[in-house]
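Appendix B. Raw example, untouched.
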Amino acid sequence: MTSQPQTPLLDRVNSPADLKPMSDAELRQLAEELRADTIATVSKTGGHLGAGLGVVELTVAIHAVFDTPRDRLIWDVSHQCYPHKILTGRRDRMLSLRQKDGISGFTKRSESAYDPFGAAHSSTSISAALGFAVARDLGGTPEHGLGDAIAVIGDGALSAGMAYEAMNNAGHLGKRLIVILNDNEMSIAPPTGAMSSYLSRLYAGAPFQELKAAAKGAVSLLPEPLQEGARRAKELLKSATVGGTLFEELGFSYVGPIDGHDMEQVLAVLRTVKARADGPILIHTITEKGKGYHHAEGRADKGHATAKFDVVTGEQTKAPSNAPSYTKVFAQTLIAEAEDDPLITAVTAAMPDGTGLNLFAERFPNRCFDVGIAEQHAVTFSAGMAAGGLKPFCALYSTFLQRGYDQVVHDVALQRLPVRFAIDRAGLVGADGATHAGSYDVAYLSNLPGFIVMAAADEAELIHMVATARAIEDAPSAFRFPRGEGVGVEMPARGDMLEIGKGRMIAEGNRVAILSFGTRLKEVQDAAEALAARGITPTIADARFAKPLDETLILQLARHHEALITIEEGAIGGFGSHVAQLLAEQGVFDTGFKYRSMVLPDIFIDQASPHDMYAVAAMNAGDIEAKVLQTLGVDVIGKRA
């Protein structure tokens, strides 16, 4: 049962300016109301819950102390931005969160002046904030002016090299820049690696009352008469932990760690920093993901992502599925293959649950590697394993593989190393919107010499493609599959090795052939049923491979039909472009042959249900039917009749 909490203070807030007259006690109460309102909202919409609950006090304090939007507040990744959105004039739209024509689940420049930099991929905030700081000092004059630049970055995001590149540059430039490290020891999965251990050692065993005293000192930022005592307190604290900090070596003044849920501490430090900072400074806050909602606190992922849920019981509302998810099929198939082959390894970048590799890790803990939010490293690490004789499967979302593209080109493709890329979340993904769309991998992989690129038409095909990738030992390969459930086809007990570069015929017809690449095949079959009522029976084929192309199949379809239509869940420049190149080089167009390519449109498509997003892309069954009729001129004939 979900009830609306009482929020008398929050009801008075229309913008951050309304926080300025509030006392510290009122700000503490406001934080509690904001937490309750966030829980109530996400219970109705679903979305990212735990991260936002962990930064409620921090969000209130930043907006109370600083002058947004003139001061630019940048949330790294921005899973945690729901409380921020509530305070910045969007509370009345929160029930449209992550829905069609609603507000984004991430920060978005076009949505609000309080979102100065869009996010959804990690570790970009410090670079962007430094850019704002340089723009400020060189006279940049954007709307609302330019004041402080504040980046809020999680400890998980610090595992990505881009964060260190930015900190190194910021320390060198010496610009006034405020970085707040939101250290909750929990990104989407438990943080992996030496940085997480380092941050843990920074505050291990130190009572928060001691940290509070040291934090309030902020040492060099204090008036001179108070500096010496504060300095001694800080040095005592540091000697009890690690004796120094990496951040100071990079040129940042370091303050903390402080309790990110203690409003008194947070306000004291932020006010001191605002008044006194003259260079780059890092404020280290300790928070708890899911704070204040015990159903989130008790979950392994601390309520990272959730469907709609009952606030009282925490029980999530999910529609029952009649088919397994593609992700689970991939994981179970890889486990089965690894049972037979001890050389198979698996790599993920901070997404073991999202890619299904948590299941692989349970069975083969020594052969599964979560490298943290570090896709570039994940790719080259996999390349090294491949060069060492192993059979690595690098499992990344399509949108995140983009971050490692140079490594795919230089470290994998150029050396012809047999890394197997399992590309999850291919195509349009729904509520996460444009930032997470898997729109580009077909195009950016198919143009690489020697790369084998596959797309599963259904969950059974995915099983075959995992087996095929395992068997490929002389070239890099990739197979892509979407988010969500399969279509309910009969599943093979084990996968078969597919013939490389060979598609399959699905249905024989006449006049027009439809060549599908990926999971639009089900929509093509639905369109064919509707076309049959008009007396049109298209030939249907599943390409399976974008590279190498099945040239024999494509040219055969061209010879025996008036028209050929390709369809793929990817941007222009992918499968259809390669087919067009083949047809052009073979002189097929010289005879007046009709060819059409259905691809994602040249726009970024905002969040909605996948069906609605594909409606925008004009790639559902009705759109395919219309494309066939238009290509054959049937719609024109019908109008004349």
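End of appendix B.
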